[in-house]
């Protein structure tokens, strides 16, 4: 009976507050079929950023993908993570190899502001889709690195160097898939990989929803 009631309540809620697409605002889905179809995949082979063995990216960071990531991060629409992951899993040709998913951590102050870590939300749904373990604690951001949006390639690297650390008693697993929302220069992922390798990991790959191109940088 409880399950029935819960189901009915959910339907009633969906009727009063229908889902809006985070990419285009249309009613019906959190990331609609049209936005999925319009999202341009990254087809070129990407050179893994320094410190990473492999990198997989689903889409270009533009249009509806960009708006959906903004909705997740800045409008705090947490449920958008699941819709994006479902689209990503259907879209990505090959998942990176690794035994465990680790989200790029937020600094505790940023986490308190936002209420959740968008990368951890993405990793949580990916773990369900791929039946992989999720390790959301252990890797920490020990320094608030601020916003990187206005920094160039070099400055980003300097800004995040040493910002992460492994702080669990047991060493991290051997082969890891790091999860983040957007790849720009890969400086953040590289700094995470450095912390994991320093603690004993041997292979670190990364997966992100999208790839942004730094202004004036098309490499
Ligand atoms: Zn849409």
How is this structure best described in words?
38% of the residues are buried. The protein has helices at residues 2-16, 33-38, 63-73, 80-91, 108-114, 118-130, 153-160, 187-198; strands at 54-60, 100-103, 139-141, 164-166, 175-183, 203-211. The protein has 219 residues and is of the alpha/beta class. The radius of gyration is 18 Å and the shape is globular. The N and C termini lie far apart (58 Å). The longest helix is centred in the first third of the chain and has 15 residues, at 2-16. The strands form two sheets. The protein has a four-stranded parallel beta sheet. The protein has a two-stranded antiparallel sheet with strand order 3-4. The chain has a single domain, classed as Rossmann fold (3-Layer(aba) Sandwich). The chain binds zinc ion (ZN).
């Amino acid at each position: 009976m409880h399950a029935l009631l819960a189901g009915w309540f959910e339907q009633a809620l969906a009727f009063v507050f229908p889902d809006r697409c985070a990419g285009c605002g249309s009613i019906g889905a959190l990331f609609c079929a049209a936005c999925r179809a319009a999202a341009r995949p990254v087809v070129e082979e990407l050179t893994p950023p320094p410190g990473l063995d492999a990198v997989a990216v689903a889409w270009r960071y533009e249009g509806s993908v960009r708006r959906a990531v903004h909705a997740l991060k800045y409008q705090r629409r947490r449920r958008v993570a699941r819709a994006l992951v479902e689209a990503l899993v259907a879209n990505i040709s090959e998942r990176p190899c690794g035994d465990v998913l680790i989200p790029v951590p937020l600094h505790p102050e940023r986490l308190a502001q936002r209420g959740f870590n968008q990368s951890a939300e993405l990793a949580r749904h990916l773990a369900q889709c791929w039946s992989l373990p999720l390790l959301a604690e252990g890797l920490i951001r020990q320094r608030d690195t601020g916003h990187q949006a206005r920094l160039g390639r070099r400055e980003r690297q300097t800004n995040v160097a040493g910002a992460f650390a492994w702080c669990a008693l047991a060493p991290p697993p051997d082969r890891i898939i790091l999860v983040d929302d957007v790849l720009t220069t890969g400086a953040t992922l590289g700094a995470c990989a450095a912390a994991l390798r320093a603690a004993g990991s041997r292979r670190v790959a990364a997966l992100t929803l999208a790839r942004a191109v730094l202004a004036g940088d098309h490499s």
